[in-house]
Amino acid sequence: MPLQGTSGAASQDAFGGSGVAVVPNFIEEVFSCFLYTGTGATQTITNNIDLSTKGGLTWIKGRSGATGHRLTDTARGATKSIASNSTAAEATESTGLTAFGTTGFTIGADADYNTSADTYVSWTFREQPKFFDVVTYSGDANSSQIISHNLGAVPGCMIIRPINAVGDWPVYHRSMGNTSTMWLNQTGGINTQLKWWNNTSPTATQFTVGNDSDVNASGRTYVAYLFAHDAGGFGTAGTDNVISCGSFTTNGSGVATVSLGYEPQWVLIKRTDDVDSWYISDNMRGLAVSGNQPNLIPDGSYAELVGGYNAYPNATGFTANVGIGSSSFIYIAIRRGPMKVPTDPNNVFALNLAPDTSTAPLTWTTYSTVDSVLTKRNLSSTNGNNIFIDRLRGNSANLLTNTTAIESTNANITDLTISNGYIQKLVSTGGAGGAITYAFSRAPSVFDIVCYTGTGSATTFNHNLGVVPEMMIVRLRNFASNWQIYHKDLSAFGTEPADESRINLNNTNAATTNNLIWDSTPPTSTVFSVGGSSDSNRSGNTIVNYLFATCAGVSKVGSYTGNGSNQTINCGFTAGTRFVLIRRTDSTGDWYVWDSARGIVAGNDPHLSLNDTAAEVTTDDSVDTNSTGFVVNQNSATNINVTSATYIFLAMA
Q1: What is the pLDDT of residue 354?
Q2: What is the reported pLDDT for 20?
Q3: In 3-state terms, the chain is what percent helix, strand and coil (to 5)?
C-alpha cells in the first residue's frame, strides 16, 4: 500500500478523494536519542532507525570529553563529517561513522566518536515527511536561488552549511522571520539582512536562499537540514504532531511555560536578543522535572555541563527555566515516544535478579528505554527497602514504597543514564542476597508517569497513557505521606465507587473511603483528577503518579474474589506472567510480589512485600503457573485466596 502524506483530518486523507488509507508513522521510527560508551574499536549502534534505505542524519557528541559535534548524513555519505562547533570544511573520517544500516550505524575508533571508556550521545533524525529532510545543492551566487525539498510541510527551522569550504552555520527559524538569521556555531543574537533568505519564506515544497557565501556562493556545495513544525503526519490517524519550532519570552524570574500538546524528549534552545550559547537537553541524559539538567552546546566542543538552560517537561510541553528574565528565545522540541501501542511484553517490561556484587550494565536488545525501575536490595536481609526510581524525576531520586519518607538521592542504587537498560550499583553497601529489579518502559495503553505540583483544590492533570488509567500510584515527593492507590476495581466496604476509595501502598490497612483523594471523579483517557486532599494534591508540593492500564497480551489490571482453595486468574497472556502484585482490599494484607526471575513454579515461590523491609519468603506455595496468567492458592502465609475476600492485582506478561 503506498504512503499518503497527511494533512488535516484523517478522514479526509484516508477516505476522501483517492480513498488510500493512511500508513501510520510513529516518532520512535524516525528519531532516536541513544547513549553509548566508547570501546576504541569498531562498534555498531543499534537504535532501530533505518537510515540506509530511508535516509537521514546522525549527530554524535562526546559527553565526558571535549570533542567536536560530528554530523554525518546519508546525502553526503558515511565517513563525511562536519562539525557544528567549527567552520572547517567537510572532513573524510575513515574511522568515524563508517556505515549506515537499517537498524542503526557503525563507528570506528575516531576519538570524537569512540574513545575507550568515554561516554557519548547520538541523535538520529530519519528523513520523513512532516518531520525532517536533508537537501544538498550547489551555489550559484544569484541573489535568489530556489531549492526543492521533500519535507512535505513548511519548514519551521533550516540549518545550512557549506560542505567544500570554510563557512558558518546560518539558521532560519520561523519565529525570527525571513530576513533574520543566527549561526549554530556562534553565540550571537539575531542578525537581520536580506542576503540569507532573500526576504522569502519557505513553502511546503521549496526554500529560497540569497547570495550570502554561507548559503549560495558559486562553486560551493551545501547541505541543508530541514525541520517541520506542528505538521501532523504521525499517530494512527496521521494527525499527531511530533516536532515543533517555536519561541517564548521569559518572565522577570527567567521562566516561561511552553505548550506543545505532547511531552518532549529532546529540546534545543537559543537566546535571540543577546549573546548566549545554544543548549541541547534530552530525556536519556536527564531531561527531568526539576534540578539542573545536563546540556550540550552545539557552538562549542565542551564536555557535557550541568546547568545553563533547563526545560522541565510535562505531559503537554515544558517549563523553560533559563535564569534570564524578560528575554526572547527560540526552540526546537521533539515528542517523546513511543507512540505505538506495544504488542511484545519484552519491549515494556523486564526483570533481573542480580548477585550482591553486580555492577554491570543490565540491558535488553529488544527492550525500549527503561523509564522506571522498582528494585529491592538485600533480599535475604530484614532491612531491604523497596525503591522506585525513574528518569522523569531525575536519576537516583529514590522513593521508598515501604515508608512515608520524602524523596531522597542515593547515587549508589541505580543509574538510568544509559540506553536500553540501567546500571545496578550494589557493592558500596553490600546487598545481602542480591537484588531484584523490575524495569518498566512508558508506553501507550500500558504505563505512564506524570509529575505535578499540588494546588490544594480540585484539579485535573494531563497524562499520555492514551487510555483510561485502571491503576494509579500517587506519592508526594517532598512531604512525608502515605502512598495512595487508585484501582478501577477498588471499592471500600464494597459499596463506594473506585473514585471515592483508596488504599495505601506503604501499610497493610484495608481500603477506605475518601472522596477528596480523586475528587470523586474517575480518570479519562487524557486526564486524571485529584481533590483537595493533602495526600494527593498538597498545595505547593511536588507529586508523582504512576499510571497503569490493561494492554492485550502485555499487562493486566484486575481483581478477583477468593474461593478458599485455588483458582486460575486469566490475564489474556499466552506464556504466563513474569510479575504479579496482589493486595487484599476488604481486610488487612501485604502488597505481595511474585516474579519469574525468583520463581513462579509449581512448588514454593519466593515473595516480597512492598510495604515492608522484610527478607523474601521462600517457604510457601501461594501462586502457580498458568499460560493465561497465574494461579492463586489459599495458604495461611499469604491469604491471597480467602473465601469471599476481595483482591486487586497488577500483572505483567
Answers
A1: 79
A2: 54
A3: 5, 40, 55
Q: Residue 353's pLDDT is what?
A: 86
Q: Which residue has the cell 483544590?
A: 457
**Intervals of the chain under pLDDT 50:** 1-18, 427-430
CB 224 within 8 A of CB 134: yes
Phi/psi at 243 (nearest 5 deg)?
-145, 140
Three-state DSSP class for 492?
A: helix
Cα within 13 Å of Cα(526), Cβ side: 3
Question: Which residue carries 494512527 as its cell?
Answer: 236
Output the pTM of the full model: 0.95
How far from the centroid of its chain's Cα atoms is residue 369's Cα? 7
The reported pLDDT for the residue numbered 356 is 62
Grid coordinates given for 325? 528574565
Across-strand partners of 443? 447
CA distances to 35, 154, 417 from 240, in Å:
27, 16, 28
DSSP 78-103: TTEEEETT--PPPEE-TTSEEEE-SS
CA-based radius of gyration for the chain? 26
Cα separation of 306 and 284, whole Å? 14
Q: Is 507 helix (H, G, I), strand (E, B) or coil?
A: coil
Residue 82 and residue 168: Cα distance in Å, rounded?
A: 11
What is the C-alpha separation between 7 and 230, in angstroms, rounded? 11
Distance from C-alpha of 53 to C-alpha of 242, rounded to nearest angstrom? 22
Distance (Å, whole) CA 565 – CA 148: 72
Q: Which amino acid is at 512?
A: T
Overall residue count recorded for the chain in this entry:
653
- Please state, as a whole number, how many other Cβ atoms lie within 10 Å of the Cβ of residue 570: 14
According to the model, what pLDDT value does residue 22 have? 64
- Please tell me the distance from the alpha carbon of residue 121 to that of residue 288, in angstroms, as a whole number: 17
